[in-house]
């Protein structure tokens, strides 16, 4: 795969006239100034001068781009298109609301050679969208995606878990719909309660309870596995410090962790090894149990998975040794291993993104 450098241009809360229950864009963008074309040009030039990626893209984030004043949209897009026309960049993307997509908008995006539009879908449940005050229903989502496909513009989908009225079943339905629609990219975020939002008011009045971190990690891990096995490119899991949220001052509740995606990967690796542990325990029940318990388990994995095998603060190893009474788990690193598979000493292979039966997933 070619390395790609994204130059993020944050347009704060610009373009969006809606007030979703979870959103306080001042805390998300970190600023509220309208970026000038000159400022964006300096930013792009600085990135280009310091980067060495094979492909470069400009991305307008943090607001609903297609809701901006048309003149401002064209000023921004004209600058991006000029860089693309000269080959300095190769990709233009932007984010917006599904109900801010129509034929007139798409003709403008085509004129400036926009490659991808990320849609803030959040959920494919009308009940969840209504409770979240999104200002549109699922019809608007499907219509926007149909229009983007018709015009040959790639699209991305952003999903959120834990919104008001959301459940694991509704969230997994949204994941299945996402897979069916075949987006180019997907982002998954757990819902956080930000200060000065309607959701914060509901939380204080005990009308809304965000999911626990453990629940969010387990649920998002399953969703991530579903998407990855379906060939969907998941480009973000969880919010990070680079999202410019004032996590210490703005987030008052919810499943935030600075390494949320790492916890998700820890969980997926744990599930895979759990199947090996279950098999070993079943084998021990028909043989010498004491010998099986004392047995050293060995797993060979790609270097990028070593930390995930251990888990955050070695929690995976602790859980496995405590649950099965095994004496030692040896971890071997091999760069020739596939990044999606655990290789066990007895030549068993376990896929990290495989979905396992309910008995296994509920045990961990």
TrEMBL record:
Coiled-coil stretches: none
Keywords for this protein: 4Fe-4S, Iron, Iron-sulfur, Metal-binding, S-adenosyl-L-methionine
Superkingdom assignment: Bacteria
SMART domains: Elp3
Record SUPFAM superfamilies: Radical SAM enzymes
Cofactor(s) the record lists: [4Fe-4S] cluster
Gene3D superfamilies referenced in this protein's UniProt entry, alphabetically: tm_1862 like domain
Domain Radical SAM core: 1-227
A matching Pfam family: Radical_SAM
Name of the protein described by the UniProt record: Radical SAM protein
Organism of derivation: Fusibacter paucivorans
């Amino acid at each position: 795969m070619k390395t790609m450098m994204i130059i993020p241009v944050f347009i704060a809360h610009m373009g969006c006239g809606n007030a979703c229950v979870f959103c306080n864009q001042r805390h998300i963008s970190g600023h509220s100034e309208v970026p000038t074309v000159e400022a964006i040009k300096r930013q792009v030039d600085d990135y280009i001068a310091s980067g060495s990626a094979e492909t470069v893209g400009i991305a307008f984030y943090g607001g609903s781009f297609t809701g901006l004043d048309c003149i401002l949209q064209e000023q921004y897009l004209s600058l991006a298109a000029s860089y693309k026309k000269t080959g300095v960049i190769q990709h233009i993307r932007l984010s917006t609301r599904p109900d801010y997509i129509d034929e007139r908008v798409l003709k403008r995006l085509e004129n400036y050679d926009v490659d991808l539009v990320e849609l803030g879908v959040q959920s494919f449940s009308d009940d969840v969208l209504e409770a979240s005050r999104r200002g549109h229903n699922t019809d608007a989502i499907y219509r926007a995606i149909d229009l983007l496909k018709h015009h040959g513009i790639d699209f991305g989908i952003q999903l959120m878990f834990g919104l008001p009225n959301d459940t694991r079943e509704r969230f997994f339905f949204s994941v299945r719909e996402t897979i069916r629609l075949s987006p180019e990219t997907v982002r998954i975020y757990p819902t956080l309660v930000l200060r000065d939002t309607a959701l914060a008011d509901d939380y204080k009045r005990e009308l809304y309870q965000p999911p626990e971190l453990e629940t969010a990690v387990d649920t998002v891990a399953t969703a991530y596995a579903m998407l990855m096995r379906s060939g969907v490119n998941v480009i973000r899991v969880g919010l990070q410090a680079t999202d410019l949220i004032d996590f210490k001052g703005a987030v008052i509740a919810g499943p935030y962790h600075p390494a949320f995606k790492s916890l998700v990967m820890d969980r997926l690796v744990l599930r895979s090894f759990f199947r090996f542990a279950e098999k070993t325990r079943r084998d021990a029940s028909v043989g010498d149990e004491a010998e099986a318990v004392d047995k050293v388990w060995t797993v060979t994995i790609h270097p990028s998975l070593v930390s995930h095998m251990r888990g955050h603060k070695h929690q995976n190893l602790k859980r496995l040794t405590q649950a099965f009474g095994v004496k030692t788990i040896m971890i071997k690193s091999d760069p020739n291993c596939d990044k999606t598979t655990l290789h066990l000493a007895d030549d068993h292979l376990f896929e990290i993104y495989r979905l396992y039966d309910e008995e296994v997933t509920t045990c961990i």
